[in-house]
Write a structure and sequence with these properties.
The protein is mostly helical. Helices cover 62% and strands 0% of the residues. The protein is built from 26 helices and no strands.
């Protein structure tokens, strides 16, 4: 709204009885009592204007305008201002019905800014210990979370809670820290908190995630001896998943039989885990047999997760025709796809460089209002990264950030692989710095991507520095890590380095590819 002008004020009606002019001496003030009552008001106004203008010209002011600004002439009641329209959000604020015509000492914009600043100052307090603990767990920073938890235990108001321990055990399990999970479980016992089936299951899951199956079975046997900590469907599902990932299907059959003996019926989630294991192991006959039983069952019917598992299995091995056949079959029994399903199709088509079908699925998602997720963009970025198409990879990444989606660890792994495949190693350094700026939590896959980029660039010194950094970050190397590094050293004829890595691999990884640790002492559990 434009500032209120002098010409607008000059149209106001004036009262015939003006007040003394502020700022004038007694001799210059107007004496309203000396005015003849029958004299025309217009003549008096003309004399008033001449007198004030003569004085103002001597003082260098603007004449009659100063009289109006000084407030010496009272105006009659202001006519009601016409209603102005309300401005849309984002536009300059207009005048509403309740606002003053003359305006306020502070404009609306300043008022809004002041309120926002006051609100920001009011919220500028430090996190409590409990809030900081939840924040560290949300960011999956297990070391910092344990440090904050030790601080929390020192507070006078602290009371051990089962939920806090379960969350910490799950965090440690996802961070591949079973030893820390065991230490935390012992600390819980020292504080007098009674163990439950949920707490034991969280501890067992921590070992299962690290594929320490023997230790997980020892925990299962310990649970059977405790009347209040009997294993349930969640306990068995975690253990079956670990056996499936290790291709120990004889143990899977044993666990399923044990569940039947204890009266625990496997649900769809449990059977989906077994189904995925059969597919990954190439046991397609058993997979179809189990799937047929699920179709005939009244309690474990296939769901959209079953559909995703089957499509993902065939998509990952490049059997696009088989994937499409199963997609139509699941649709025929009434299972509708979800965003994850369509992301699987995009990833499968991208790996086979079938960009026309990949684009068709993307347009289908837009048309039917399926939300694009980080996984959608990751699959698109990965498709271009595998082919070394840095230009389209960058366009997809820019669009991802423009839509407000935060890239995750997989996003940066794909970007690093894409730049290294394209030979743009200077951009690998840039993208690693961006990952640090965005506080992306590095994992084993992330470091493997960086090590692979160094190997392709034939920078073996930097590769060793990244490997040392990986160990400092408590990220355990896997078979892929040693395969990349030994391959790089062999190409350069560095046999001694290859031997050292093989010996280290034997110390760190067992024959089955699992990390070697000492057996769990169940007397302390």
């Amino acid at each position: 709204m434009a500032p209120y002008s002098l010409s607008t004020r000059a149209t106001l009606n004036l009262s015939p009885h003006p007040r003394p002019i502020s700022g004038m001496t007694q001799t210059h003030q107007l004496n309203t009592c000396s005015w003849p009552m029958g004299l025309d008001i217009q003549m008096q106004l003309q004399k008033l204007r001449k007198r004030v203008n003569r004085r103002d010209r001597k003082q260098g002011d603007l004449g009659f305008s100063k009289l109006l600004r000084s407030g010496s002439v009272r105006s009659q009641p202001v006519r009601e201002a016409p209603k102005r329209r309300h401005w849309k959000e984002g536009e300059f604020p207009g005048v509403s019905e309740g606002s003053s015509v003359l305006g306020s000492p502070r404009t609306a914009i300043k008022n809004i800014k002041k309120k926002l600043d006051d609100k920001k100052d009011a919220n500028a307090w430090a996190n409590t210990v409990t809030e900081e603990l939840h924040e560290r767990m949300r960011k999956k920073q297990w070391e910092e979370a344990l440090e904050v938890f030790d601080m929390l235990r020192e507070q006078p108001f602290y009371q051990p809670r089962e939920g806090t321990y379960i969350k910490l055990l799950i965090l440690l399990g996802k961070s591949a820290q079973p030893e820390q999970a065991q230490r935390l479980f012992g600390l819980m016992n020292e504080e007098g908190l009674e163990p439950t089936s949920e707490l034991y299951t969280a501890l067992l899951a921590a070992y299962c995630r690290s594929r320490l199956i023997d230790q997980a079975f020892l925990i299962l046997e310990k649970m059977k001896t405790l009347p209040l900590c009997q294993p349930d469907i969640y306990t068995y599902t975690n253990l079956i998943k670990a056996c499936v990932e290790a291709f120990r299907f004889e143990l899977v059959d044993r666990l399923l039989a044990e569940m039947s003996d204890r009266g625990i019926t496997p649900n769809t989630v449990t059977l989906n885990v077994v189904l995925g294991g059969y597919g990954k192991a190439g046991m397609f006959d058993k997979m179809e047999e189990l799937l047929s039983k699920m179709l005939e069952s009244s309690s474990c019917n296939p769901d959209v997760w079953t559909m995703n598992i089957i499509l993902g299995l065939f998509g990952n091995v490049g059997q696009v025709e088989e994937m499409e056949r199963w997609y139509e079959r699941f649709r025929s029994i009434g299972i509708s796809p979800e965003t994850r399903t369509l992301n699987i199709l995009i990833g499968a088509y991208g790996k086979k460089k079938m960009y026309d079908k990949m684009t068709a699925v993307m347009e289908y998602m837009r048309k039917l209002s399926y939300p694009w997720t980080s996984s959608t963009y990751n699959n698109i970025i990965e498709a271009f990264a595998d082919s070394g198409d840095a230009k389209h990879m960058e366009l997809a990444f820019d669009q991802m950030r423009a839509e407000g989606m935060k890239p995750d660890t997989k996003t940066f792994c794909c970007l690093i692989n894409g730049y290294s495949n394209a030979g743009l190693f200077h951009k690998v350094v840039t993208i690693i710095r961006l990952a640090e700026k965005l506080e992306i939590v590095p994992n084993t896959t992330f470091f493997n991507s960086v090590i692979s980029a160094c190997a392709k660039a034939e920078d073996l010194m930097e590769m060793e520095r990244v490997y040392a950094r990986m160990r400092d970050k408590k990220c355990a190397p896997n078979d892929e890590t040693y395969m990349i590094m030994t391959g790089a050293f062999e190409r350069e004829g560095m046999r001694d380095k290859v031997l050292d890595l093989n010996e280290e691999r034997e110390r760190m990884i067992g024959k089955d590819g699992f990390e070697v640790t000492e057996l769990l002492d169940l007397e302390e559990v």
